[in-house]
Amino acid sequence: MKYLPVVSVAALLLAAAVPAQQTPVLKPVPTKPAEAGRGPAPQPVGPGADPAETPVQAAPLRLTMAGPALVAAKADVTLRLLIEVTEDSEVPAVLLNGIDLNVRVGGKDANPISRPGKGGPVALAAGTRIERQLTLPASAFMASPELTEMLVVAVSWKDQVGVDCTFKVAPDSSSVKLEDLDLAKTQVILVTNYGEMQLSFRPDKAPRHVENFVKLCLQGFYDGTKFHRVIKNFMIQGGCPNTKDDSKRAMWGSGGPGYRIDAEFNDLRHLKGTLSMARTSDPNSAGSGFFIVHKDAAHLDNQYSAFGNLVEGVDVLDAIANVAVGGPQRSTPQQPVVLEAAVVLPVAKK
Predict the structure, then answer these.
(1) Of the candidates 217, 235, 236, the residue with the CA atom closest to the CA atom of residue 226
(2) What is the pLDDT of residues 85-119, one digit of tens each?
(3) SS in 3 state form for 16-61?
(4) What pLDDT does 147 receive?
(5) Radius of gyration of the chain (CA)
(6) Is the pTM of this model over 0.70?
(7) Closest C-alpha to 51, from 76, 20, 22, 77
(8) Residues 6+ apart with CB under 8 A from 288
(9) CA of 180: how far to CAs of 189, 199, 200, in Å?
């Protein structure tokens, strides 16, 4: 049986990796001073966007930097620096084996990260390509790894205009215990390939559903799943673990955590932005599937267990609800809508 909220017939009708290269040839070339590159102004990177790669259009080097979209506060951050030599030239040691990063956290200047290069400039021939992997602890970019909110970190290579990237650092939930959380104040950010949606919860109305959802988020259960059922002017539905596997497409919507939760119907109305639990025709069959209402749906009131609300990201909800769909019920996104991570913003009980 597939877990899904009922929709009326009328509602249904509304319906950086680098290319493989030969090993670079490093050979002596006539030396000349490295020119100070000045490329186009850096382009802004929006929240939730893919890692930015902004090349510097300057001779004799073309530099690109990229980072992850999201990392946990106690994990490592790996930045990729690609060096492409467009003219025979000398490359400073700091580019080859050092680090010289300016850092901004939450829009404010933070401590730069600098490690001098070893040795002097190295003469490289035109056509040489070097990719460096710079791995640093996420804590190196922050004052404290103990986060209770998502942080946006922007890094740029000093004196190289346009060589920059932005990533987000999420609170580390690996040591968070569900029983220690104030679930009325704890929130969750759903990080998707369309942006972010932030959720709050109503444990006073549906305590078991709130506990279950936050527990699954803490476990990383939802990470990598897809919003597999999208109906504009009705709702977007996700939470099925089978959606991680495209070969199980026929089973999308029928997976779960291996247990069921009894219904907690309540007086919360299914308005736009309401978070509610999907189920089969059996009222006591909820598991992991959930949906977010796109347009007021009074016919779902007291029929499905509403347990939270969207507090930020209505534009993302709208964007997902408007994706092109197909399939037998004209509700399957033609391009994947991926829930990349469900990030818990923990608030402890007092």
Answers:
(1) 236
(2) 999 999 999 999 999 999 999 999 999 999 999 99
(3) CCCCCCCCCCCCCCCCCCCCCCCCCCCCCCCCCCCCCCCCCCCCCE
(4) 80
(5) 24
(6) yes
(7) 77
(8) 212, 216, 221, 222, 239, 240, 241, 255, 256, 257
(9) 19, 19, 17
